[in-house]
Amino acid sequence: MKIAMVSEHASPLAALGGVDAGGQNVHVAALSAALARRGHHITVYTRRDADDLPHRVRIFPRVEVVHIQAGPARHVPKDDLLPYMEELASGISRDWERHRPDLVHGHFWMSGLAALDATRQGPAGAHIPVVQTFHALGTVKRRHQGSADTSPSERRLLEPAVGRSADRIIATCPNEVFELKAMGIPPGKISIAPCGVDLDLFPGTGQADRRARTHRILSVGRLVPRKGVDVVIRALPLLRAAGFPDVELLVVGGGGDATETERDSEPRRLLAIAAELGVRQQVSFRGQVPREAMPGIFRSADAVVCTPWYEPFGIVPLEAMACGVPVVAAAVGGLRDTVVDERTGLHVPPRDPESTAAALARLLADPGLRQALGRAGQQRARSRYSWDRVAAETEKAYLHTLTGAAGRSHEARGQLHPVKEGAVL
Ligand code: UDP
Prior knowledge:
Layout: E1 2-6, H1 23-37, E2 41-47, E3 56-60, E4 63-68, H2 85-96, E5 103-107, H3 109-121, E6 130-133, H4 138-145, H5 155-165, E7 168-171, H6 174-182, E8 190-192, E9 215-220, H7 229-241, E10 247-252, H8 258-263, H9 265-276, E11 283-287, H10 294-299, E12 303-306, H11 316-322, E13 327-330, H12 335-338, E14 345-348, H13 353-365, H14 367-384, H15 387-405
Parallel strand pairs: 1-2, 1-5, 2-4, 5-6, 6-7, 7-8, 9-10, 9-12, 10-11, 12-13, 13-14
Antiparallel strand pairs: 3-4
Helix pairs in contact: 1-15, 2-3, 3-5, 7-13, 11-14
The chain binds uridine-5'-diphosphate.
């Protein structure tokens, strides 16, 4: 199959850990590579965000990334990209004059818009089915972030419209299916395929980095408030009171090296909280860490803590599990499925420093429990979340789509345009 992936802001080539570069970048790169291993040909279309990027670049056998000029050739926050989706769609459909795909897979709602638009501009009579993975949903984001949500107001109408217009939606977990149904997406159109973990990059055994204190707990991810790193910081004084004074919280992720990261607003807010609680010396920021260095960091920790307010999926817990490290996870979104409470980690309510501290204290006090949870996590990651397995499930959804879409004309989708006035949604 020839598959076009559209990932407007999340390039497989980007450095990870910045505000807009994380799980989606990993997902698109790893899924493309795994589908290519199954014999498919993948082209990933992403927005050109620097002048010096080649137009077309091969990143794995049978996987190419194409940088499309759509808006300025520099980083633009993802929530400001909507006005450029029409240009992105035109660039993609131009490329299809020579490289026509059998199917297009949009990642994130704006890519879905561009994918649908490109199929309308494409060669006459050529219905190209559209599969959509949202990665995050505006309804959920609004519920949790309220007025702090920087999504464009159009998302409210356009995201469900993408869901209705796409031929098939791939949800990454059952909780997302629930949210999609609440958005009005017919359940018969939804398939589930989770995110995966690169088991070659994150093998069960290997070197662990050295640590500075008796215990290390680790937080990994984009440094945005909803990831709830403040919850872990607030747990530190409680851990101290519980008899664990020598604990380091290492925070990985950010917009550059450690020094650059500490200048950004969210790390500064987190450091101020740590200082106020008298645990500043226990918190350190590593900044952006390249993929190859992640396994040693995971293995250096007694526990990985993921306490977001909400989480569409969350690849970090899978990586920790693959490395045999227990996970303390807020029982939200995808984390409810990946982390099995009392088997591969411990669930805690979201935004709850007391429960987080209690779970961590249990783990720090009990090396046997850490080992048992770590071992079970490793088995679970290996048996259920390899990218090869995820690619096989995704391929099934593609085949289902191609069969169902046969004979449908693209007029059947109706019009849906990101910026034009009077769009019919
Ligand atoms: N990551 C990384 N280096 C960093 C920070 C994060 O490689 O400095 C990776 C991390 O290992 C994981 C991804 O970025 O693969 C984050 O994905 P996740 O799904 O957990 O969070 P999202 O970014 O989707 O919110």
